[in-house]
Design brief:
Number of strands: 10
Number of helices: 9
Strand content: 5-15%
Helix content: 25-40%
Distance between the termini: 54 Å
Radius of gyration: 21 Å
Oligomer: single chain
Shape: globular
Length: about 280
C-alpha cells in the first residue's frame, strides 16, 4: 500500500516542474499575513500591483506567496505552515494555465456541451477543467463557475486526465460579459412593515451602525471572501429586510465594499438574492 505524499513533498514535486505552490490551511484557504504584513502594511509584493516590495519570509499575501523555490518551501517558517496545511495550492497563472472551476453537476453539464475537452481533475463537488493559457481571474462568471488563472490560486488535486487544450475564446468571453467597473443598480428591499405601522428599527443610529458593521466585516476579511460577503448580507437583511429600512444607498455601500475585495458585480447580486431567498424575503 503506497503512502500518501505529504503536502510539502507534493509541493516540492510541483515546484520542480515549474508550478508555483503555497500551503493551504483548513477551509482550503491560504494562511493569513503575519503581523508585519497585516493589512498590506509592508507595502505588498510587486506582482500584487501594490507599491513596494515585501521581503517577508512568511507565507503571506495569499496567492502571491506561491513559489517554485525549493529553499523557500523547506525553510523553517514554511515548514511550520506545511505541518498545519491540509492541502497544496498553486498559482495557475504562474504555470501558464487557467482553471475553470465547475462547482456542481449543472456547471459540469454546461461545460461538456459548451467547452472543448481538456485535462480534467475531479473535485469534492465538481471538476476542474485546466487549459493552456492565462487570463484575468473572475468568480461567479455563471452559476457554479469560477475562473482561476492570474492573481488567484487553485487547490492541487492531482495531475488529472486528458491532454491540455488551449484556452478557448468561450472562456475568455465569460470574463468580459460583466466588466469589473460596472456596478449593478441596487434595489431597495420593499417588504411591508409590521402591522403596528411602526418599524422597530427605523432609527438612523441603529441602521447606520448595522451597515457600518457589515462594511467593516467585508473590508477586514483576509480569506473566504465569498462566505464573508454572503454572511454580511444575510445579517443586514435578517435585521432590516422585513421593515423597509434599507434603501438603494445602503445596498450600494455593501456592494461597493464587496467589490473592493475583488467580488464581481454578478456575485454581489447572487449573494444578495441568495440571502433574501434564505430568509424568505
Amino acid at each position: 500500500m503506497s503512502e500518501t505524499p505529504s503536502p510539502q513533498r507534493t509541493a516540492l514535486s510541483l515546484a520542480a516542474s515549474g508550478v508555483a505552490v503555497l500551503p493551504l490551511r483548513r477551509g482550503k484557504v491560504p494562511f493569513g499575513n503575519c503581523t508585519v504584513c497585516a493589512g498590506n502594511a509592508c507595502g505588498g509584493r510587486p506582482n500584487m500591483k501594490i507599491p513596494g516590495p515585501c521581503r517577508c519570509p512568511g507565507v503571506c499575501h495569499a496567492w502571491a506567496a506561491a513559489t517554485t523555490d525549493p529553499a523557500v518551501i523547506v525553510s523553517p517558517v514554511w515548514a511550520a505552515a506545511w505541518r498545519r496545511a491540509v492541502c497544496v495550492g498553486y498559482h495557475p497563472g504562474s504555470a501558464g494555465l487557467t482553471v475553470v472551476d465547475l462547482d456542481n453537476a449543472d456547471a459540469i453539464a454546461w461545460a461538456r456541451t459548451t467547452l472543448p475537452a481538456t485535462r480534467t481533475v475531479a473535485t469534492t463537488r465538481g471538476e476542474h477543467w485546466i487549459y493552456r493559457g492565462t487570463m484575468t481571474s473572475h468568480n461567479a462568471v455563471r452559476p457554479g463557475v469560477d475562473i482561476k488563472s492570474s492573481m488567484s490560486y487553485a487547490r492541487y488535486l492531482g495531475p488529472g486526465t486528458g491532454p491540455l487544450a488551449d484556452l478557448p475564446d468561450t472562456v475568455r468571453a465569460l470574463a468580459v460579459k460583466q466588466p469589473p467597473t460596472v456596478r449593478p443598480t441596487p434595489r431597495s428591499v420593499s417588504v411591508p412593515a409590521p402591522s403596528s405601522g411602526r418599524c422597530p428599527h427605523r432609527t438612523s443610529v441603529f441602521l447606520e451602525r448595522g451597515i457600518a458593521m457589515a462594511e467593516q466585516r467585508i473590508t477586514s476579511a483576509r480569506s473566504g471572501i465569498h462566505a464573508t460577503v454572503y454572511g454580511a448580507f444575510l445579517a443586514v437583511l435578517s435585521t432590516h429586510g422585513r421593515c423597509g429600512c434599507l434603501t438603494d444607498t445602503h445596498m450600494a455601500r455593501l456592494f461597493t465594499a464587496a467589490q473592493a475585495k475583488g467580488e464581481t458585480a454578478r456575485h454581489c447580486t447572487d449573494a444578495w438574492n441568495n440571502a433574501r431567498t434564505t430568509l424568505g424575503l
